[in-house]
């Protein structure tokens, strides 16, 4: 070992890999590097490596459904170790190994291949797989660096899991065979699950994205996994807005509040937009949760218990194109009992972006600015939503440049935006500066050039039909279920009380 070099430790990592239904499919014993002992500027520099956005995954999946394309999934075996390391890295011998004439206290190992646990391990692998895909004729998307495009073939990559889409099954077979020559991988056949999400084909062309096992994990984490648990019809009480409740009663249970929020947040971000508002509200108080917040989390889980086997259903509607619903609740978090708390003055933003009637992206979040009026709150929400819309429009335009058919968007990519505030619509369309909104011009009206070109059209919609309303406030049961069923393509179902007979 060179003078001055310091070896880093080796550690064993034991793991049971499960499918989305919780069944064990692999037992893993992985040798990892103790990257926490690496020194920046010596054995590593950059560490960031991109992963594919779920909005890209859903958009490509919806396009494949509309175009009736074939879908396959592959898994790269021990992906990190398939790439060579960039620098000289020395490691201690792993525990449990015995080599002839080797003294573990005097001898070290020099790494030749990348290893899990290294600070730049994921980046090294990403550069390796990127180089291999480019050599095979793929082009890397300029909009999403983990989307690779080839004539009539799309490849979506999330670290070592890839999904391929093509109109030809033979083309996919040839592509996977070519990849197999350069990489160690497992062909998992037709796309049935991806990153813990199950893709279940149903009748009438419906494909459901669901996560029943992860929901079970959420329920178990808060001790609500029993069969006789009382269920709720909505994830949040329509008459209650959560606040910090600094002087409120302390929690009574010992389960990990942050872990439960993390699990719920993963579920709502992947397949359950109906949980977004309630989960976001509870997540705001992870630093010091009180009994009121604990009860709110349990209510979400009781709602999940009654809808465990339900998921996000995709049934492309050929009459609809690229659409966005956006809404805001002005000062919706106001707490009249704590008028000195500025955090309760912020408004709530909610939006959902859809293609062919199928959700691509949704969000429920607190606005970073304090809005001075309803119009201003709506403009802030519109600006936030259109940042995502413009990004997805650029992605669709890029796919079209590679001769990928984009239905509903001829002769150009357009997006219909639905807003229920007339003043917001007027201000967004007209470049005239007004005394009450001119301070927002530079920060928020970045989308006006798209409106002027006709790439984005902003239309009025009634509050009853505003799908984004479900992301801005807790709604009464009937209104919540109406919007939820439209977003998730659920059929009307009996209430929890009717199911349980209570």
SSE layout and pairing:
Layout (H helix, E strand, L loop, with lengths): L9 E9 L5 E10 L20 H14 L2 E7 L13 E2 L17 E2 L10 H15 L3 E2 L6 E4 L2 E6 L2 E6 L2 H14 L2 E6 L2 E2 L2 E5 L5 E4 L1 H10 L35 H14 L5 H8 L7 H16 L5 E3 L7 E8 L18 E8 L2 E9 L7 H28 L13 E5 L2 H8 L11 H4 L3 H6 L2 E5 L16 H12 L7 H5 L2
Parallel strand pairs: 15-18, 18-19
Antiparallel strand pairs: 1-2, 3-9, 3-10, 4-5, 6-7, 7-8, 8-9, 11-12, 12-13, 13-14, 15-16, 16-17
Helix pairs in contact: 4-5, 4-7, 5-6, 8-9
Overview of this structure, please?
This protein has 502 residues and is of the alpha+beta class. 31% of the residues lie in helices and 21% in strands. It has helices at 54-67, 121-135, 169-182, 212-221, 257-270, 276-283, 291-306, 374-401, 422-429, 441-444, 448-453, 477-488, 496-500, and strands spanning 10-18, 24-33, 70-76, 90-91, 109-110, 139-140, 147-150, 153-158, 161-166, 185-190, 193-194, 197-201, 207-210, 312-314, 322-329, 348-355, 358-366, 415-419, 456-460. The strands form five sheets. The protein has a six-stranded antiparallel sheet, sandwiched between helices. Strands 17-16-15-18-19 form a five-stranded mixed sheet. It has a four-stranded antiparallel sheet with strand order 11-12-13-14, with no helix packed on it. A hairpin with a 2-residue loop joins β8 and β9. The chain is globular, with a radius of gyration of 25 Å. The N and C termini lie far apart (72 Å).
């Amino acid at each position: 070992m060179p003078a001055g070099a310091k070896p880093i430790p080796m550690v064993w990592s034991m793991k049971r890999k499960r499918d989305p239904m919780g069944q064990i499919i692999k037992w893993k014993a992985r040798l990892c590097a103790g990257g926490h002992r690496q020194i920046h500027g010596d054995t590593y520099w950059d560490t960031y490596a991109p992963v594919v956005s779920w909005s890209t995954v859903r958009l490509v999946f919806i396009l494949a459904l509309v175009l009736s394309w074939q879908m396959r999934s592959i898994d790269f075996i021990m992906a990190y170790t398939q790439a060579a390391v960039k620098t000289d890295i020395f490691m201690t011998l792993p525990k449990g190994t015995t080599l002839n004439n080797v003294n573990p206290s005097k001898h070290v190992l020099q790494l030749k291949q990348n290893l899990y646990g290294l600070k730049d391990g994921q980046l090294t692998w990403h550069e390796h797989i990127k180089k291999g895909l480019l050599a095979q004729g793929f082009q890397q998307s300029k909009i999403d660096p983990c989307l690779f495009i080839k004539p009539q073939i799309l490849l979506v990559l999330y670290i070592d899991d890839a999904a391929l889409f093509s109109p030809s099954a033979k083309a996919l077979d040839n592509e996977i065979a070519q990849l197999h020559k350069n990489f160690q991988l497992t062909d998992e056949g037709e796309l049935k699950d991806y990153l813990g999400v199950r893709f279940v084909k149903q009748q009438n062309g419906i494909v459901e994205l669901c996560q029943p096992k992860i929901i079970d994990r959420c329920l178990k984490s808060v001790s609500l996994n029993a069969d006789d648990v009382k269920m709720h019809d909505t994830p949040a009480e329509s008459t209650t807005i959560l606040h910090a409740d600094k002087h409120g009663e302390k929690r009574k249970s010992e389960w990990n509040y942050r872990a439960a929020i993390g699990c719920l947040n993963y579920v709502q971000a992947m397949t359950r937009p109906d949980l977004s508002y309630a989960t976001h509200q509870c997540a705001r108080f992870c630093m010091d949760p009180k009994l009121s917040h604990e009860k709110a989390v349990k209510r979400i889980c009781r709602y999940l218990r009654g809808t465990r086997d339900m998921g996000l259903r995709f049934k492309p509607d050929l009459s609809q194109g690229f659409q966005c619903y956006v809404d805001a609740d002005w000062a919706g978090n106001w707490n009249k009992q704590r008028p000195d708390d500025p955090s309760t003055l912020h408004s709530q933003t909610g939006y959902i972006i859809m293609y062919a009637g199928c959700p691509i992206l949704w969000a429920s979040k607190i606005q970073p600015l304090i809005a001075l009026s309803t119009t201003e709150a709506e403009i802030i929400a519109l600006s936030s939503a259109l940042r995502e819309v413009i990004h997805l429009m650029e992605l669709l335009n890029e796919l079209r440049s590679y001769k990928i058919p984009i239905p509903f968007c001829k002769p150009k990519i357009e997006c219909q935006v639905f807003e229920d505030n007339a003043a917001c619509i007027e201000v967004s369309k007209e470049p005239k500066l007004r005394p009450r909104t001119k301070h927002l011009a530079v920060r928020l009206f970045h989308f006006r050039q798209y409106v002027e070109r006709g790439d984005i059209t902003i239309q009025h919609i009634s509050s009853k039909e505003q799908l984004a309303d479900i992301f801005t406030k807790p709604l009464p049961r009937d209104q919540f279920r109406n919007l939820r069923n439209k977003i998730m393509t659920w059929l009307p179902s009996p209430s929890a009380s009717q199911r349980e007979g209570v």
